[in-house]
Amino acid sequence: MLISGSGTNLQAILDELHAPADSGVECVLVVSSSADAPGLERARAAGVSTQVVAMADHPDRESRDDALADAVAAAKPDLVVLAGFMSILTANFLGRFPDRVINLHPSLLPAFPGVDAIGQALTWGVRVTGVTVHFAEVEVDAGPPVLQEAVPVRYGDDEVSLTARIREVEHRLLPAAIRLFADGAVRRDPGDRRQVGIGSEGGLR
Ligand code: GAR
């Protein structure tokens, strides 16, 4: 898992998927883009290996991504999960894990990509926003969705109240998406790579 900040989504995954012995899902490594991300402590408390790969320690994004990819590849993950990883990844990284990197974003993409998605939704005045788990691609927040869920925006909502409602959904949706991958229940259509089927062959939805 790649993180940058508080790591509440990492915590949801640790609690729901990593901790239960019979879940069949193990979080093998947490890499943070920042040495003081509180999420690192959550990983350590759960006995998960951690590493820091910071932009400041590299001359450019390409070399940072080479180092990041080396660290991730050494842990041999089946799936790479960006859970609040707030740094753009280049093809150097993504090309090393084709169709195996997913990202969590706090809006119903393609609405409100990039930074401050929740603030963007409030500024726009939308009545519905949401959460997207999608395949990561070089273009930011642009890969095809695996799971999406709507979250209502209520009159009088502010950043704090809407963030709380969105986080609740994130903490369910991201573990659910990882579970689908673990069960082999996510299929990216080879003929049209924007189409993602969920379920088993013959019963894809
Ligand atoms: C989450 O809301 C996630 O959707 C968002 O960062 C937060 C991380 O929270 N990611 C993005 O905005 C990516 N564009 P957490 O550190 O408590 O899991």
Report on this model:
There is one protein chain. The protein is α/β, with parallel strands linked by helices. The protein folds into two domains: 98 residues, Rossmann fold (3-Layer(aba) Sandwich); 77 residues, Formyl transferase, N-terminal domain (Rossmann fold, 3-Layer(aba) Sandwich), CATH 3.40.50. The strands form three sheets. A four-stranded mixed sheet has the order 4-5-6-7. Helix 1 runs parallel beside helix 6. The radius of gyration is 17 Å and the shape is globular. 33% of the residues are buried. The model has no long low-confidence stretch (mean pLDDT 97). It binds glycinamide ribonucleotide (GAR). The site of glycinamide ribonucleotide (GAR) has 16 residues, from helix 1 and strand 5. The site of glycinamide ribonucleotide has 16 residues, from helix 1 and strand 5.
Spell out the blueprint of helices and strands.
Blueprint: E1 2-3, H1 8-18, E2 30-32, H2 39-45, E3 50-52, H3 61-74, E4 80-82, H4 91-94, E5 101-105, H5 117-124, E6 128-135, E7 145-152, H6 159-182, E8 186-188, E9 196-198
Helix pairs in contact: 1-6
The chain binds glycinamide ribonucleotide (GAR).
Glycinamide ribonucleotide binds next to helix 1 and strand 5.
